[in-house]
UniProtKB/TrEMBL annotation:
<feature type="domain" description="DUSP">
    <location>
        <begin position="139"/>
        <end position="240"/>
    </location>
</feature>
<dbReference type="Pfam" id="PF06337">
    <property type="entry name" value="DUSP"/>
</dbReference>
<dbReference type="InterPro" id="IPR035927">
    <property type="entry name" value="DUSP-like_sf"/>
</dbReference>
<protein>
    <recommendedName>
        <fullName>DUSP domain-containing protein</fullName>
    </recommendedName>
</protein>
<dbReference type="GO" id="GO:0004843">
    <property type="term" value="F:cysteine-type deubiquitinase activity"/>
</dbReference>
<dbReference type="InterPro" id="IPR006615">
    <property type="entry name" value="Pept_C19_DUSP"/>
</dbReference>
<feature type="domain" description="DUSP">
    <location>
        <begin position="22"/>
        <end position="117"/>
    </location>
</feature>
Length: 279
């Protein structure tokens, strides 16, 4: 799709299309005239410009500054995650048309050559390995937990206590990261946003905000928290959530029971007694 085709698309924005001002209409007419003149004399196309911005230019009364960072990195070179389908994100225009658009709207950066950026490519590979390792480890953990629940449930936290919860906003960001819909990882876990106090007094009870959290096994919580940090740790107890001190005591008791179960299994194994899922 060439720039002329992009500019002719009128149905790109259906619900948010703004009323064009006379000045924008004049600019669009001038751009079309420049395109026609460039086509007649076969002007070389030496500048790259965002297709997304061209869509905004063709439909919005104010497209804002030119933004080429949807295909360029911060160093004005090829954005690594766009490299495989780079031509989907830019169009080529003449230097004179670029100068005209830049004078009217500003922005950028200007790009006349496309090269791979070693710095950003290395960072991209690091992030790629990170998401692959995290996703693989998380799926492995899920599989191990499923087998334990079926065979020796007493070795899982879920056998003794309610599941943990995590902020839906955070877990959605993490999923977007490992599924390659977001480049940046989500940052530290913030579960404070799903807590609400019943009153402003010091002895107020803590409650979980409905629909703001996702349940997950404590083992999965420990996995994510070990990577990203943050907190606080919360259980799926919507009303009157236990205090941090009470939660720590509960976890300590559960840890003791899991250790006792492990020791019992070791003794049975040493004595040649078959393992039972109800040990």
């Amino acid at each position: 799709m060439e720039i002329g085709d992009i500019l002719s698309k009128e149905a790109y924005v259906l619900f948010y299309q703004r009323q064009s001002s006379q000045s924008m209409d004049d600019i669009r007419i001038h751009v079309r005239q420049m395109l026609e003149e460039n086509d007649k004399i076969k002007v070389s196309l030496h500048r790259y410009i965002s297709r997304e911005w061209l869509h905004r230019f063709s439909t919005f009364s104010n497209p804002g500054p030119i933004t080429n960072y949807d295909f360029l990195c911060q160093h004005s070179q090829i954005l690594p995650r766009r490299a495989a389908s780079l031509t989907d994100y830019y169009a080529t225009i003449s230097s004179s048309l670029w100068d005209f658009l830049y004078e009217k709207f500003g922005g950028g950066p200007s790009s006349s050559e496309l090269h791979y950026c070693l710095t950003c490519q290395n960072e991209f590979q690091v992030m790629k390995r990170k998401r692959e390792i995290e996703l693989r480890a998380f799926l492995t953990l899920e599989g191990q937990l499923k087998r334990l629940k079926n065979n020796i449930p007493a070795l899982t936290y879920g056998y003794y206590m309610p599941p943990n919860v995590i902020a839906k906003a955070w877990i959605d960001k993490w999923k977007a990261f490992v599924e390659e819909n977001e480049f940046e990882p989500p940052g530290s876990i913030d579960n404070n946003i799903i807590l609400v106090r019943s009153s402003n007094t010091c002895d107020a009870k803590l409650h979980l905000r409905p629909s703001q959290y996702v349940e997950l096994p404590r083992e999965a919580w420990l996995f994510l928290q070990s990577i990203y940090g943050g907190g606080p740790e919360l259980l799926c107890i919507p009303e009157d959530h236990p205090s941090l001190e009470s939660l720590q005591k509960l976890i300590a008791k559960v840890n003791e029971k899991i250790v006792e179960t492990l020791e019992s299994l070791k003794r049975r194994n040493a004595d040649g007694i078959p393992l039972s899922s109800h040990s």
